Amino acid sequence: MQAFAVATLNGVSYGLLLFMLSAGLTLIFSMLGVLNFAHASFYMLGAYLGYSIAAHAGFGFALLWAPLVAGGVGAALERTLLRRARVNGPLHELLLTFGVAYLLAEFVKLVWGLGSVSIALPPMLDGPLMTWGDATFSRYRAFMMMVSVGTLGALYALLRTSRTGLVLRAALTHARAVESLGHDVARIGTWVFAIGTGLAALAGVIGAPLAVVEPGMAEAVGSIVFVVVIVGGLGSIGGAFAASLLIGCVQTWAVGTTASLGGLLHTVGVRLPSAWAALTVAQAAPLVPYALLIAMLAWRPRGLFGRRESDA
Amino acid sequence: MRKPTAARIRADIAQGRHLGAASRWAAGAALLAAPLFFVHDSWIFGYLAQAAAMIVLALSYNLLLGETGLLSFGHAAFAGLGAFAAAHWFNRGGIALPWLPLAGGCAGAVCGALFGAIATRRAGTAFAMITLGIGELVAAAVWTLPEGFGGAAGVAIDRGSGPAWGAWDFGAPRQAYAVIAVWTALSVAAMFALTRTPLVRIANAVRENAMRVAALGVDPRRIRYAMFVFAAFFAGIAGTLTLIDVELASSESVAMTRSGAVLIATVIGGSSTFFGPVVGALVLTGLSGALAGVSRAWPVYLGLLFVGVVLRWPEGIAGWWCAHRSRVGAFDVRSQGWVYLLGGVAAAAWVGALVIAVESLYALRFAADAGGVWRLGGFAFDLASPATQAVLGGLLVLGVAARWALRATVQAGTRAGGDE
């Protein structure tokens, strides 16, 4: 039971990390109408920048500067390349972000090398926070949850209470009307792109001490984040939140269990060949998000909270 | 100067199109068949087979991207699943090698019918992400599932072990290539014929405006589904052609990198013309064959080419070529000579500068033991040395100057044309 509670807490902290990524992705999608395929590359860039900055100036500085730098890169990308691709239609925007993801992976290999690097935890955050029986919940995971909740709370407050947030929310849904009121919607779009990529980079920095920082990490996380936004419903922040926590928890539980497929199906009364029965749920954990995606789409094509858009 | 009238251009194009189309098909068939008589090295056959399989895969991909406007990130899944099914069928015995691509294609189509039922309920971005999920699911399943995919080793076949046709047992590279070439020709012709059917015409309409097609009483989802199954069928054929070439179906054949490669090939070649993906497949296999051995940085060039094509030539290399051919046809070649010369100089200077910069950077990063210097013949480029920096600067300035002169020439030409 304690193990399950800790696994749930771990799952929630992973889910919050996923939500930081998917929230930025959803904001960008709502504002610019393009799903940023390079989003996970900014997560990776954040992790690597965090590694370099932390090595020179400490982890605290990395938390602040890596998202700022990555957000700046994101804004520059939107201003220069993405705007030029937009002329040729939304398909070309998606293709461009695909190309950027490809190039960013090469860039990271060029600058930081092919091997993996790791960020050392600050001593204050190292060690267990609480211990229940044999299950421990680490201090760093609690810190991770705190940072994600704090950032997302601040973002929510900004969007809901400030005047800037009001204009931004209006621009998400009624861009033409906001433009005719004298606001520069193109600049708002750049800001949204910068905020989204900055959030991804922050997720990269706080996730880096627990993950392996290597050039393949963007691909590994990227497809899960895209699964999250589809399961939650494209363009819905609430859906992204629910789907992030769902996938975070389900995947963490799957990794943590010792149950095997044969054992699970035996209780239902199905017998499997021995090779399949020996397959543990933990081994099949990488399949879980994608299986969930397929199940979700078969049941509800628009996702959890998606609006009805049959062709988009 | 011969003044082009609209009618004359149209007549020229109509005349040229029939001749051009016939000669293009003949040239393509001859190119496919020629290696059978002139080539004696097995590695060349392997390389050509790789290109042929990529051509079929890219054309099948274009049934989705170009014809129906569906961007798929998981197309290799169907090629790979087709190859796995074909490999198992072949190892069970009883099927001659030349029939194998048909078996692989049918397996691909069955998988396409299964996954397509879910994926094609949506279009646009959602479709792209669902196919990404399907691609990842299949790639992860091949690693994880204990039976059917052979784990890390894959499923191997011995292509010479099947029933022989007379003296042909298809074990030799030349005989295997003959099978691959025939199937490539058949698939290309079949897909070309398919693009002339009403189904694909309606698919074009779905690409342009699904809402209107729905208003006409045709369900866009059914059209997308049909196109998805066709694309998966030809992808299965392409996957089996690769299987015949390398005699192995492995996790690599369903990998996301392969889905990315076919996407890159199709976009670089151009998705708006039928033969664009063929060009793209040839460019991609040519680059990966020629550059990968020479330069560690070749993915960078590929990525830059891709981004450049997306930004500058949305119709791809084939679209760019067609536009320029009609420009040369409509205007006098001599008046365009300067324009192309200056454009060529600018492009060459910038590409030169780019190559020097990238190669020296990679040498600095990855070949530090060799002094971090990129050697090309008798020249050595070191980013820290003033000589290299001067060469880089010179090339950049040359490129800018040529580009500036080009713009001036074109503007002068437009003004003169306007005065006439």
Question: Topology, please?
Answer:
The complex is a heterodimer of chains A (312) and B (420).
Chain A: H1 2-32, H2 39-57, H3 59-86, H4 90-112, E1 128-132, E2 135-138, H5 139-161, H6 163-173, H7 175-180, H8 185-207, H9 217-232, H10 237-256, H11 261-268, H12 274-277, H13 288-299
Chain B: H1 6-33, H2 35-38, H3 42-68, H4 76-92, H5 100-119, H6 124-144, E1 155-156, H7 173-194, H8 198-208, H9 210-215, H10 220-246, E2 248-249, H11 256-269, H12 276-292, H13 298-312, H14 316-330, H15 333-366, E3 374-376, E4 379-381, H16 386-419
Helix pairs in contact in B: 3-7, 3-8, 3-10, 3-11, 3-12, 4-5, 4-10, 5-10, 7-10, 8-10, 11-12, 11-14, 12-14, 15-16
Q: What number is the mean pLDDT of chain A? A: 84
Strand order of the largest sheet of chain A: 1-2
SS elements, strand count of chain B = 4
Q: What is the CATH class name of the largest domain in chain B?
A: Mainly Alpha
Helix content of chain B: over 70%
List keywords for this structure.
heterodimer; A: mainly alpha; two-stranded antiparallel ribbon; 13 helices; B: 420 residues; ABC transporter involved in vitamin B12 uptake, BtuC; 2 domains; 74% helix
